[in-house]
């Protein structure tokens, strides 16, 4: 049976130096947690009897992305504005936790820098913003 995502939360460190996530990013309406994929290295040779042979290559950690109901004057935007300021100056990373509150104590934690920020202001709907994060550490799953 599938687990509903109601109650899923994203938390971030309040500063670049933070090693824990203490600020909740509010009003998330969509989130993609960092996944991974492994490259294939083709090691085929003429001795392979016409069958391609592969070995595993590097693992690439995927991006995280979330969309929020965006309010340019709330606490979530204060933190995102600070992250954007650091992203303009250099690729500074922050600590993040995805908390799966509906699954008990399950958490995915990682450090990432803000790669993109895309606000949306449709005519007859709520304002939203999509934030893209690029992890700089391998995500760690605990409590699963």
Report on this model:
The chain has 144 residues and is mainly β. It has one domain: Pnp Oxidase, Chain A. Strands 1, 2, 3, 6, 7, 8, 9 and 10 form an eight-stranded antiparallel beta sheet that branches. A two-stranded antiparallel ribbon has the order 4-5. A hairpin with a 5-residue loop joins strand 7 and strand 8. The mean pLDDT is 87.
Q: Count structural domains.
A: 1
User: Segments where pLDDT lies below 50 for 5+ residues?
Assistant: none
Helices and strands, in N-to-C order? EEEEEEHEEEE
Question: Sheet bearing the most strands, described?
Answer: 8 strands, antiparallel
Q: Return the structural class.
A: mainly beta
Helix proportion range: 10-25%
The Cα radius of gyration reads 19 Å
Determine the mean pLDDT.
Answer: 87
Architecture, according to CATH?
A: Roll
Q: Give a count of the beta strands, DSSP E runs of length 2 or more.
A: 10
Task: Output the CATH topology.
Answer: Pnp Oxidase, Chain A
What is the distance, rounded to the nearest whole angstrom, between the alpha carbons of the first and last residues?
16 Å
Strand content: over 45%
Number of helices: 1
CATH class: Mainly Beta
Approximate shape:
elongated
